[in-house]
Amino acid sequence: MKLNYYPDTDSLYIDLSERESVESREVADGVVLDYDAAGHLVGIDIEHASETVQLGRLVLRGMTGDIERPVA
Fold first, then answer.
1. Which of 29, 36, 57, 58 could bridge 19 with an S-S bond, Cβ 3.0-4.6 Å?
2. What share of the chain is helix, strand, coil (3-state, %, to 5)?
3. Beta-strand relationship, 31-35 and 41-47
4. Do the Cβ atoms of 55 and 42 come closer than 8 Å?
5. Residue among 5, 6, 9, 1 nearest 42 (CA)
6. Residue 33 near residue 16, CB atoms below 8 Å
7. In this model, does residue 63 exceed pLDDT 90?
8. What 3-state DSSP class applies to 55?
9. Domain boundaries, the chain
């Protein structure tokens, strides 16, 4: 899973898997869910993220895996 914030568009994209998105559905104003060919959820796009999401803090609980923080 990857969290990608794009300050130029103020959008947050959450990649839930490496599978390709083939369908998108807006489920609320500014929230789009992306699905793969089998109908599995693969990503979440949140517009105006700085107004709707707490971007200043990220807490991970029960995660088993590597945590990467790429240098910008």
1. 36
2. 5, 40, 55
3. antiparallel
4. no
5. 1
6. no
7. no
8. coil
9. 2-52
For residue 30, what are its two tokens? 């500014």
pTM: 0.87
What letters, b where the CB count within 10 A reaches 16 and e where it falls short, cover 22-46? eeeeeeeeeebbbbbeeeeebbbbb
- Give the residue-averaged pLDDT of 27-40: 97
How many CA atoms, within 13 angstroms, populate the side-chain half-sphere of residue 38? 4
pLDDT at 72 exceeding the cut of 70? no
Q: Could you tell me which of 29, 60, 58, 61 has the C-alpha nearest to residue 45?
A: 29
Q: What percent of the chain has pLDDT over 70?
A: 99
